[in-house]
Amino acid sequence: MSEQTDAQIQETTYDAAIIGAGPIGIEIAIALKKEGLDYIHFDKGQIGETISGYPPQTQFFSSADRIAIAGVPIPIADRSKCTKEEYLAYLRAVVRQFGLTINTYEQVYLVERHEDRTFTLRTVRIDGERTWRVRNVIFAHGDMASFRELDLPGETLPHVSHVLGDPHAYFNRHVFIVGGKNSAVEASLRCWHTGAEVTICYRKGEFDTASVKYWLLPELQGRIERGEIRAIMRAVPVEITPSSVRIRYIDSDRMEEIPADAVLLLTGYRPDYTLLRNLGASFTGEEGRPVFNERTMETSIPGVYIAGTATAGEQRSFRVFIENCHIHADRIAAALTGGQPPEGDTSYGERHQES
User: Fold this and answer.
1) Residue 282 sits in which domain range?
2) What percentage of the chain's residues is helix, strand, coil (to nearest 5)?
3) Contact 52, 23 (CB under 8 A)
4) CA-based angle 49:313:355, to the nearest 5?
5) Is the pLDDT of residue 4 over 60?
6) Residue 268 has what pLDDT?
7) Residue 258 pairs with which residues in a beta bridge?
8) pLDDT for 334 beyond 80
9) What is the CATH number of the domain that holds 250?
10) CB 316 within 8 A of CB 33
11) SS3 string of 305-337?
């Protein structure tokens, strides 16, 4: 697929548009290209944008063979777990290997459906807006568009963050971490290793073992037992000040003020379904999952498909991640070409965190 001029874009109706260039979006592009379909591909950021936001040297939960895409192995020589940096390099190599054209830093801000069952996409990039016409739209934008905010007084203070970033920033600081799943556990350990004084606060009585990388929890529990990291269980923050966090113990309503130079609210993410909702798509369940046909990945709107973790809604118990979404690419390619969708398990299996 070659790039089009603005004039050509106005005259062309593409077979499909892919929104999102994470691993599953890239895998879909490869599947469509193999079928000879004329598609366009967008991401509001760079390829693997969500993954690029992980802290440095973050390791994936899944082994390298399970997060490889399009049959291209990940060259990990000395361990089975892939780091963020290794995976992004891998994605770049795959894009080059298959000669994919991806319109990065171009955000789709409107999708309109017409009576002839075609769609108009309106996009914006640094040099202005563009308009595109397509027959099908594929959403592969993931489920981590925004942070799950707690609506606390002080949540917007400059020393409060919903992401870890580089742990070096927390050297010799009192760090207060909220959460009990993978992100919070990993942040606690990484901050402690860089020389921070760490307190982790969780609303439940124990950490969520099904949502924490299995090699992290034993270390955290050991450091808690030795008094190296303080864990406050069955408690919630109620206010953040420039120098402390006020917490409430759930069982007694007792209040306590904890010194804090930095606060990490690692309580999860929310997907952005604005474009889907504007099209009139249906959603279901407590997690707000889009309704779709698991054999074809088509949503309740004819010609609109969804893939990857975007199928999951607002995940609180993680069941949808890279390794069980690969089949989505072949299902969509089959649906668009009239082929037979591949057989395979449509359940999402055990829950855990992808990263």
Assistant:
1) 6-146+269-337
2) 25, 25, 45
3) no
4) 45
5) no
6) 83
7) 245
8) yes
9) 3.50.50.60
10) no
11) EECHHHHHCCCCCCCCCHHHCHHHHHHHHHHHH
The phi, psi pair for 47, rounded to 5°, reads -60, 145
pLDDT of residue 351: 39
**Domain assignment present for 15:** yes
Whether residues 142 and 153 fall in one domain:
no
- Is there a single domain that holds both residue 215 and residue 328? no
Structure token pair of residue 183: 């992100």
Please give the pLDDT value at position 242.
97
What is the chain's length? 355
Number of folded domains in the chain? 2
pLDDT at 1: 47
Inter-CA distances, 146 with 10, 268, 320, Å:
33, 9, 17
Query: Are 139 and 158 contained in the same domain?
Result: no
Among 68-77, 78-87, 201-210, name the one with the lowest average pLDDT.
78-87
SS3 269: strand
pLDDT at 345 over 90: no
d(CA 76, CA 90): 10
37, 296, 138, 21 alpha-carbon torsion, rounded to 10°? -90
Which residue is it, tokens 């917007």?
156
Q: Tell me the angle at which helices 23-34 and 84-97 cross, rounded to the nearest 10 degrees.
A: 20
Whether the Cβ atoms of residue 56 and residue 163 lie closer than 8 Å to each other:
no
Residues 214 and 281 in one domain: no
Does residue 348 have a pLDDT over 80? no
CB-CB contact of 84 with 51 (8 Å)? yes
Residue 343 lies in a domain: no
